[in-house]
Amino acid sequence: MNKVVYQLLLGIICLLPVSLFSQDVHFSHIHASPTILNPAMTGLFNGQVRFIGNSKGQWNGLTKGYRTFAGSVDMRMFEFNREDVIAGGLNIISDKAGDLDFTTTAVLGSVSVLKTLGNHYFAFGLQGGVISNRVDYTKIVAFDLEPDIQAGAPDKINYVDINTGLAWFYNFDRYSNAYLGVSASHLNQPDVSFFKDEDLKESLVNYRKYIFHGGADVEVNRKHTVMPSFIFMDQGPHREITMGSYWKYKTSLNGSRNSASALYFGGWLRWYAEKNYVGTDAIIAAIRMDFKNTFISLTYDVNISTLTRASNGAGGPEFSVIHIIDSIGNRRPTKIRCPNF
Question: Which of 228, 244, 270, 331 is found 20 to 30 A from 279 (Cα to Cα)?
Answer without folding.
Answer: 228
